[in-house]
Amino acid sequence: MDPEAGPLQAFAFDLRRLREKAGSPSYRKLAEHAHYSAAALARAAAGNALPTLDLTLAYVTACGGDVEEWQQRWHAIENQQRPPATAEHISSSFPTTPSLKETPPEETPPPTEETPQRPVGRGRRSWLMTLGAAALLTVGTTVALVVWPDGPPSMNWANASNVLPPPDKLGQALVDGADPKRAGCPDAVTAVGQEVWLGSVAYGTLELRYSQKCVSAWARLNPYGSLINNSSQDIRIRLETFRPDDSTASRVDEAFLRDQHWAGMLRTDKGCVKARGQITIDSNASEVVETVCVKR
Predict the structure, then answer these.
(1) How many Å apart are CA 185 and CA 180, to the nearest integer?
(2) pLDDT at 94
(3) Residues of the chain whose pLDDT is less than 50?
(4) Which of the 8 DSSP states describes residue 268?
(5) CA neighbours within 13 Å on the CB side: how many for 140?
(6) Membrane spanning segments where (predicted)?
(7) CA 291 to chain centre
(8) pTM
(9) Helix (H, G, I), strand (E, B) or coil at 244
């Protein structure tokens, strides 16, 4: 991000610097202290829009920053973005009501025999035409939904017979599906990686992480700057750790946090493990990337 691009970009850049000074905690970890979702915190530092004051101060507090200083900075940017009041705008905000002397009451002429009456049949025909148009609109909308589906295609998951709960449900236990961050696997290394491309742009590397201490492996996405700095607010990460020998899988399908993402770990003493993943941006999806199967 270029902090010279404008005050909003400088604001977001300094939020990221503040997080780095705090030890670069993940947005998931930051969310535990800020009491905002990880996705909201990531959007606050994306530089696409000014976050709310409450979100900004929660981010700053969680990173140990100066709340008063950031509050002043937020108000300064908010005042810059506010459109200036013009005389025309002020005038339109307070409309004047003309007096009764200036605006005489409108007189409604009494009905006479010469006043044309609406034919009964015409009103019915108009009602039927309106009903028919509504029916055609409904049918057309239904056809459009079928022919032009909204959103990216769904992930082509592995054919697993045992899909485990999300990693955050399994705490710190060294079991299949556990969160590797919480389980504590300090010796983890990237056993194999494969780039994820969407069109002509590479957006990150799908990695199969392995820990000999935990006797486990898991899928992780390591995003590139092309993804972290992407202006879209509709980016999803889909990851799967899969063990073909017993058809066991741990899956995540979540909004991009401008950070690394990972699925739950699977033990490698029960069979080889592979990583699978996909990135979607707006209505575009990358191919499903899959690493080789590794057993240690």
Answers:
(1) 6
(2) 45
(3) 87, 89-123, 127, 135-149
(4) G
(5) 6
(6) 127-148
(7) 26
(8) 0.61
(9) helix
